[in-house]
Amino acid sequence: MNSNEVISKHKEFLFPCVANYYEEPIVITRAKGTQVEDLDGNQYLDFFGGILTVSLEHCQEEVVRAVQDQMETLGHTSALYPTENQVDVAETLARISPGSLKKSFFTSSGTEADETAILLAKIHTGQSEIIALRHCYSGRSLLAINLTAHSNWRLQGSQVPGIKHSLSPYCYRCPMGLEYPSCGVRCAKDLEELIQTETNGSPAAFIAEPIQGVGGFITPPKEYFEIAVGIVRKYGGLFICDEVQTGFGRTGDKWFGIEHYGVEPDIMSMAKGIANGMPVGATIAKEEIANSFTGLSLATYGGNPVSMAATKATIGVMEREDIPGRAAHLGKILREHLETMKEKYSSIGDVRGMGLMQALEFVKDRDSREPDPAITNAFLEAAKKNKLLLGKGGRYGNTIRIAPPMLISESDLREGCRLIDQALSEIS
Ligand code: PMP
C-alpha cells in the first residue's frame, strides 16, 4: 500500500473519531531512537513520542529483546495465575513510587488505571462523589469522559452523576482573574466551598494530574497540591494522582510529577511511558487502601507476561540511565530555547512545563491573551514540513506539547529546538 491507500482505507474502515494529525496524515512505518520514517521514506525527528509513551526511545533494544524472549517463552496466562514478571514489576513500582504506595493492579491503558483508582477510592471510603479538575483528561470510558473536563471530549454530555469539577490551577488563564503569587492560590482554596456546596460533604476522592497533559501541560503553582489535598483529606477524601503523562522521570529529577509538590498520593495511576509503548496501565495504592478491594475484579490482559517484560526492561533502562536526571538536564536546555523563542515571537503567550514536558501556548496578542488555534495549526504543519513531529493540546487548541523520548541525545534535542525556531520563523 502507499500512503494514500492507507489514509483512504483508514477513512473507510475506522470510526471517524479516530482522527489523525495534519492535513495530510503521516503513515509511520518504522522508527529507531528518536527518528521515525513514513511510508514515503520521509524521516522525522519525534518530539512527541507517541503521546509521551515512547519514554526511552523507539525500538529500544533491551525492551525489544525482552518482549521477543518473553513471547517465545510464555505469551499469555490471564490474571488467573501469578507470574514472576508481574510480581517483579509490582515490587519495583512499590520501590520507586512516592510515600507508602505499595500494592498494584495491572490493566492495559490509562483509562483503566484511572477507572480502577476511582473504583478503589469508592470501595475504600464507602463514599461515591469524586472531584476532578477543569481541563483534566482521564480517558475514553464512560466514567473517564465524564471526569474529563473538556467539552469537546465529553461526548454525549454529562451522564455519570457524582463528579464535580474544581477550578484548574491554570495561572496563564486564571479562572479567578488573579495573578500568582498574590492570588494566594485561591483556586486550591475554592475546593473547600466546592465540597461544602456541591457534594454531600464527604467526597470519595480528588483526582488530579500533577501537570494537566491534554489540557496543554498546565503546571500548577508549587503550593497547589498541599493546599488542595489538605482540604480534600479534611473531608475524608483520598487523593488519586494521575501520573499517566507525568510519570517515569518525565518531569525531571523525580520519578513522579507529584514528588515536586511534596504531597503523597493515596492512589496513583500510571500508563503511557511505563512500558515504552507496550499497552500497560497500573494503579498503585497504599496497602490499607488496596486491601479494601476484595471483591471479584479481573483484567484478562492485566499483568500479561509480555507487557510486564516490557515494563521491567523499560524501568530497568530508566534506572540505569538515570532518566529522571536526564530529563531534568535536557529539559533545562529545552526550556531555555523555548524562553528565547518567546522573546522572539509575539504569538507565544506562555511557556510552561517541567523537565522534558514543555509547552508553548499561542495567542493572537499578549495583552488580550486570546487563543490562536489557527497559528498553532500552521506551526504544527510547518514543523512537519521541517521534519519535526510535535503534539497539540489545550482546550482552545492553541497549545503545542513538546515531549521527546527521554533517551534523546543532547544534539538531537538542540536540532529539534532549531527546527522549532525555523518553523516559527516561517509562520511569523
Ligand atoms: N490520564 C491521562 C492524564 C492521560 O493523558 C490519558 C491519555 N491521554 C489517560 C488518562 C487515558 O489513557 P489511555 O489513552 O491509555 O486510556
Adjacency order of strands in the biggest sheet: 4-10-9-8-7-5-6
Treating each run of at least 4 consecutive H or I residues as one helix, how many helices? Answer: 13
Report the sheet with the most strands, covering strand number, pairing sense and barrel closure. Answer: 7 strands, mixed
Briefly note the structural class of the backbone. Answer: alpha/beta
Question: What is the string of SSEs from the N terminus onward?
Answer: HEEEHHHEHEHEHEHEEEHHHEEHEEEH
Characterise this structure.
The chain has 428 residues and is α/β, with parallel strands linked by helices. The chain has two domains: 3-60 and 322-427, Aspartate Aminotransferase, domain 1 (Alpha-Beta Complex), CATH 3.90.1150.10; 63-320, Type I PLP-dependent aspartate aminotransferase-like (Major domain) (Aspartate Aminotransferase, domain 2). The protein has helices spanning 3-13, 49-52, 61-73, 84-96, 110-125, 142-147, 186-198, 224-234, 287-290, 305-320, 323-344, 373-385, 410-427, and strands at 28-32, 35-38, 43-46, 101-107, 130-133, 163-166, 205-208, 238-242, 267-270, 281-286, 348-354, 357-362, 388-389, 391-393, 399-402. The strands form three sheets. It has a seven-stranded mixed sheet with strand order 4-10-9-8-7-5-6, sandwiched between helices. Strand 14 (391-393) and strand 15 (399-402) form a beta hairpin. The longest helix has 22 residues, at 323-344. The radius of gyration is 21 Å and the shape is globular. Bound molecules: 4'-deoxy-4'-aminopyridoxal-5'-phosphate. The site of 4'-deoxy-4'-aminopyridoxal-5'-phosphate has 15 residues, from helix 5.
